Amino acid sequence: MASDKWTERVSACPCGKGRIVADIDSPDNPWSRPSRELRIECDDCEKQWVLSGESELVDRKTHEASSAVWHRLYEIEKELEPLASRALDEMFEKSPAPTFKAERQMLTEARLCFAGPIVYPRERKAGASVSELCEPLKNLPWIISRTTNPTLLAKLEPLAGEKANLEASRERLWKEMKRISLRSLPP
After folding, report:
1. For residues 75 and 94, what is the distance between their CA atoms, to the nearest angstrom?
2. Is 0.85 topped by the overall pTM?
3. Could you tell me if 11 and 26 are in contact, meaning their C-beta atoms sit under 8 angstroms apart?
4. What's the rounded Cα separation, in Å, for the pair 105 and 111?
């Protein structure tokens, strides 16, 4: 199947020596949409900036640091999810609420449960665990403060601390990141 391919100038680059272009590939059929990929055609700007979506350039160093934080945060959350789920399930196995309605109310107030008042009791009666109906990572401090299993707590606390530090770093990097809107650059 054929397609038309071309390159369009989007704007000048920040230093003015090169340009930002869009490579467009338009399949020759009525059901496909053209693809558009932006790139920087300037060695100096390519070293300093990275394209973020279709609308802006961001500082490469801060972007790479932010990406590393996001990756580590993802890894931490993969480790935390089963631990927090287990802690939440153990909590309600050891001292269950009097009714599923009361259980859901407690979890909703803790910002952990987003299942509705009809779905939650129905799923619990069908055998779903508490953690299957909640998002345990939404309120780790609440779970940690109520966890009585010392082994589980010893694993949860350091990971939760690292997660909090990474989230603070992510926010700091996001605020510090230099950005240039492509619209602000000359054509």
Report:
1. 30
2. no
3. no
4. 10
